[in-house]
């Protein structure tokens, strides 16, 4: 006898739910006689459970889609000779209540026009939360259930009504309707096939209703990511979003298709912004990938629309009243903004409540103040804050140090140039232009990429209203206070890790001030070495972020990896050598962790975050280092930024923290090294001090290797940059000395306490001496860069790169050198480009001919290269001047000094040789860099998405 109802149960790795589902099927009244169990490549006990329950199981491969599994089940029914009136679709994670099937059949008998019926879906295992009572879809592809988030079932939706679609987990459908519509769409392998089927059924004139008396408990294993299959992969959201886009584009009426195509693209951008605001980077990228997947394969959508249009009796307008109203997406947008505002308000209230609770705990139990007005509260708060500040010696000391530092850095709040720092360009747009250009009209034209630090400096200048001078002033003027702030945060955490009570505040003051003065006393600040100054400022913040690698929570370790990577990329953009040092330190730390904790290296969250931290700079700085290697300018990866030659450092300089004899007296640095050595004496803190010395040893090895390298560039010979290494080594000494001071504070041996008193007196001399020397020093960076070129020529050169000035220096006897000035001269950011540009052999040959045996071709070369003036600064070589006086095509020009000679090129200026090809590789890398910066910033932020936290 052929049963009027056949159950089609599809399973995949569902043994955790199948026993309850099988019991639920057996409990149905009337009983279920025909069951087709289909398993799609389960690797657990699913097949065994199904065989024990139903005898026969149709086994398919793991790559079989749900529509294909349903089609195979229908085929098995035909092979059996069974032609049931109804087919009941069930998932292996959908447990029907005992009366579910009976309620569905009763509703079908009461409404003969109903061809598809669905149950009320409730959450499993909570059993009370509502999931669905029929579904529809909005114009943006959102699955709409009409339910509130987490709504409980209290019978408030218990009425039979027509809907667009019902979930395949419990769908009762007439077999003839299922077959006439071609089953479920194969283009929707796992998600969205219920919506698509319901839409097609409504367009064909079939009626779908929801029956609340029929209850099915659904675990939503695939949607929640509890179960991974070859079809869902690791990106469930991508599959769901792709299914939604395909469903809309395949079923919407043709007249709405162009507008819908544009709307979905624009809506995807808005959705991505929303996901990024709640730090759901994966969902944002999944949305983009889904859109690209659909739009890059328009043939699939065309084929689906053609198949629907060819089916007789289809009218898309029949489903219009079942779709979500047009205003629903806008309501969701307002709800999202309201959620963000509520979250921000709640966070502020929590902080205020914690502060009030802390104040109440400090107050005496018997104290009960009278209520005060708002004005009285404000006055009391201000006076209390002022009183605490004036009575706190630590706060007064820190404030005094900041004031002294700002006074000493006063020359930085002006026009900065001199030493290793070239003048700032005229506006922030010049830095942006230098960043995005693939060919620079500098010298004779070059494709060497702009240094990596140009981008952060351009961003800083933009934030300051486009003033490049203000950007340099902020870097040099506020470096010490900002570094002191970061050092205080870092050393405070280190103190708490070493001793439960934490480091004394006076120790923190000494350590933070000493650390902040490192770029000053080493000579980098006074000599205008911006790269070293920035590294010294960022290093404590970078070290603070790196402490997250030791966090017991794996999620926080990964977040620390992204934060360290971002800060390392920023620091390495100013001092590329820092990345190689970080690589060496990471290898040592990971190797030590593998030796100390056996098996730890197998945990990806142990070695993964350091690997991420090292990979992020490679990604973010790719527009610089990849073209640099391509243009044979790889030396820039090991050089300090700024004008060359950069100051070097021998062994004594490394130990005392000096750059080539610059900076404060070396005795201050020797005292710091001695304090770091004495820090090994206290036993309670000996191990963390040894860790600091291991870091110092690795840094010294890297410095020794870098000290071997010497680079012969086109204009000069220079050594590898050691400025960042000096800063790291001095920072290590500061941390070791701070930890040692904490250890001395907890020692109980009397002679150790005497030693502590002596150390305090000696240690105090380091920051005091550094501040005193800074106040009395005369920084080179304030002197500016002298130019011996007439002012009118400089004004002419600023009209465009084709008005260049060829400057010849030297004598015939000692040798001549030449430089080319264009625009406002060599500015910050252009030094590295010119330093790493290889010599233009043709132009050099032309200059040699010009000063020895001048020809018309040599003068024409000057005009084609955009050279308007030739200048021989004082003291001018008479032999060279005589040759140029006699050169046809050069006319004498006036000079401000009698001993300076100048000539003007009497040819039409072209500058055609300054133009070069566009590097599309760098253009692509710049686009990827912008996207990568946004992604990394999101990954650095704390998790606010409840789904990701779960």
From TrEMBL:
Keyword annotations? Membrane, Transferase, Transmembrane, Transmembrane helix
Superkingdom in the source lineage = Bacteria
- Answer yes or no on keyword Transferase: yes
* Residues annotated as transmembrane: 257-278, 394-413, 442-464, 471-491, 503-525, 532-550, 562-595, 607-626, 664-682, 689-714, 720-742, 754-775, 920-941
Q: Name one Pfam family in it.
A: Glyco_tranf_2_3
Listed GO MF terms: transferase activity
Q: Is the Transmembrane helix keyword given for this protein?
A: yes
> What is the protein's name according to its record?
Glycosyltransferase
Species of origin reads Nocardioides agri
Organism classification: Bacteria, Bacillati, Actinomycetota, Actinomycetes, Propionibacteriales
């Amino acid at each position: 006898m052929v049963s009027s109802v056949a159950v089609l149960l599809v399973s995949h790795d569902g043994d955790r739910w199948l026993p309850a589902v099988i019991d639920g099927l057996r409990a149905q009244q009337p009983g279920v006689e025909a069951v087709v169990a289909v398993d799609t490549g389960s690797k657990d006990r699913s097949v065994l459970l199904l065989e024990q329950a139903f005898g026969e199981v149709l086994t398919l491969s793991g790559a079989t889609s749900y529509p294909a599994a349903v089609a195979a089940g229908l085929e098995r029914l035909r092979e059996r000779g069974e032609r049931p009136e109804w087919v009941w679709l069930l998932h292996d994670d959908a447990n029907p209540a005992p009366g579910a099937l009976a309620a569905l059949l009763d509703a079908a008998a009461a409404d003969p026009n109903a061809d598809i019926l669905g149950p009320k879906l409730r959450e499993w295992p909570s059993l009370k939360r509502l999931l669905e009572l029929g579904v529809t879809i909005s114009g943006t592809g959102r699955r709409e259930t009409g339910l509130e988030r987490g709504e409980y079932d209290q019978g408030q939706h218990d009425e039979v009504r027509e809907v667009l679609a019902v979930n395949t987990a419990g769908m009762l459908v007439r077999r003839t309707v299922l077959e006439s519509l071609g089953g479920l769409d194969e283009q929707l392998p796992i998600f969205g096939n219920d919506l698509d089927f319901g839409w097609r059924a409504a367009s064909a004139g079939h009626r779908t209703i929801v029956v609340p008396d029929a209850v099915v408990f659904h675990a939503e294993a695939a949607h929640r990511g509890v179960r991974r299959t070859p079809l869902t992969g690791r990106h469930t959201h991508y599959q769901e979003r792709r299914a939604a886009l395909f469903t809309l584009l395949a079923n919407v009426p043709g007249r709405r298709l162009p507008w819908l195509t544009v709307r979905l693209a624009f809506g995807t951008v808005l959705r991505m912004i929303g996901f990024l605001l709640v730090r759901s980077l994966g969902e944002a990228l999944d949305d983009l990938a889904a859109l690209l997947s659909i739009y890059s394969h328009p043939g699939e959508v065309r084929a689906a629309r053609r198949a629907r249009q060819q089916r007789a009796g289809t009218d898309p307008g029949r489903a219009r009243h079942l779709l979500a109203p047009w205003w629903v997406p806008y309501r969701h947008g307002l709800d999202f903004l309201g959620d963000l505002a509520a979250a921000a308000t709640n966070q502020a209230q929590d902080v205020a409540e914690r502060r009030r609770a802390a104040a109440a705990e400090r107050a005496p139990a018997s104290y009960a103040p009278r209520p005060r007005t708002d004005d009285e509260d404000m006055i009391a708060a201000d006076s209390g804050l002022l009183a605490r500040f004036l009575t706190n010696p630590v706060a007064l000391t820190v404030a005094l140090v900041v004031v002294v530092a700002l006074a000493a850095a006063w020359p930085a709040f002006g026009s900065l140039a001199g030493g290793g720092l070239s003048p700032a360009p005229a506006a922030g747009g010049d830095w942006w232009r230098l960043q995005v250009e693939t060919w620079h009209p500098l010298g004779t034209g070059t494709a060497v990429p702009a240094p990596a630090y140009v981008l952060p400096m351009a961003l800083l200048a933009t934030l300051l209203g486009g003033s490049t001078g203000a950007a340099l002033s902020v870097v040099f003027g506020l470096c010490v206070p900002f570094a002191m702030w970061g050092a205080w945060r870092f050393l405070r955490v280190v103190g708490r890790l070493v001793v439960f009570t934490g480091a004394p505040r006076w120790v923190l003051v000494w350590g933070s001030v000493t650390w902040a003065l490192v770029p000053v006393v080493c000579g980098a600040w006074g000599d205008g070495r911006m790269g070293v100054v920035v590294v010294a400022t960022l290093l404590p913040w970078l070290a603070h972020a790196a402490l997250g690698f030791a966090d017991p929570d794996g999620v926080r370790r990964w977040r620390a990896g992204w934060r360290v990577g971002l800060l390392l990329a920023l620091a390495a953009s100013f001092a590329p050598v820092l990345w190689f040092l970080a690589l060496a330190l990471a290898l040592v730390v990971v190797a030590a962790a593998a030796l100390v904790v056996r098996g730890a290296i197998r945990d990806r969250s142990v070695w993964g975050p350091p690997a991420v931290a090292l990979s992020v700079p490679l990604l973010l700085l790719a527009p610089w280092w990849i073209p640099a290697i391509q243009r044979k300018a790889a030396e820039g990866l090991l050089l300090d930024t700024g004008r060359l030659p950069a100051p070097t450092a021998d062994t004594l300089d490394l130990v005392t923290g000096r750059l080539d004899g610059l900076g404060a007296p070396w005795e201050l640095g020797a005292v710091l090294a001695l304090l770091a050595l004495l820090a090994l004496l206290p036993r309670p803190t000996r191990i963390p001090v040894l860790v600091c010395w291991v870091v110092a040893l690795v840094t010294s090895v890297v410095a020794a290797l870098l000290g071997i390298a010497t680079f012969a560039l086109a204009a000069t010979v220079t050594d590898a940059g050691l400025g960042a290494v000096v800063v790291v080594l001095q920072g290590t000494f500061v941390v070791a000395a701070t930890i040692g001071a904490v250890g001395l504070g907890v020692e109980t041996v009397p002679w150790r306490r005497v030693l502590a008193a002596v150390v305090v007196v000696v240690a105090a001399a380091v920051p005091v001496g550094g501040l005193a020397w800074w106040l009395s020093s005369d920084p080179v960076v304030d002197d500016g860069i002298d130019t011996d070129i007439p002012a009118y020529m400089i004004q002419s050169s600023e009209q465009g790169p084709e008005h260049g000035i060829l400057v010849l220096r030297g004598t015939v006897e000692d040798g001549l050198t030449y430089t080319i000035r264009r625009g406002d001269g060599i500015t910050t950011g252009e030094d590295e480009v010119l330093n790493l540009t290889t010599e233009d052999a043709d132009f050099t040959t032309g200059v040699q001919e010009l000063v020895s045996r001048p020809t018309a071709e040599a003068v024409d070369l000057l005009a084609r290269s955009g050279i308007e003036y030739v200048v021989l600064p004082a003291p001018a070589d008479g032999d060279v001047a005589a040759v140029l006086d006699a050169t046809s095509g050069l006319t004498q020009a006036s000079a401000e000094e009698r001993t300076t000679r100048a000539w003007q090129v009497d040819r039409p200026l072209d500058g055609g040789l300054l133009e070069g090809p566009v590097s599309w590789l760098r253009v692509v890398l710049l686009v990827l860099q912008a996207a990568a910066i946004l992604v990394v910033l999101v990954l650095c932020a704390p998790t606010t998405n409840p789904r990701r936290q779960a």
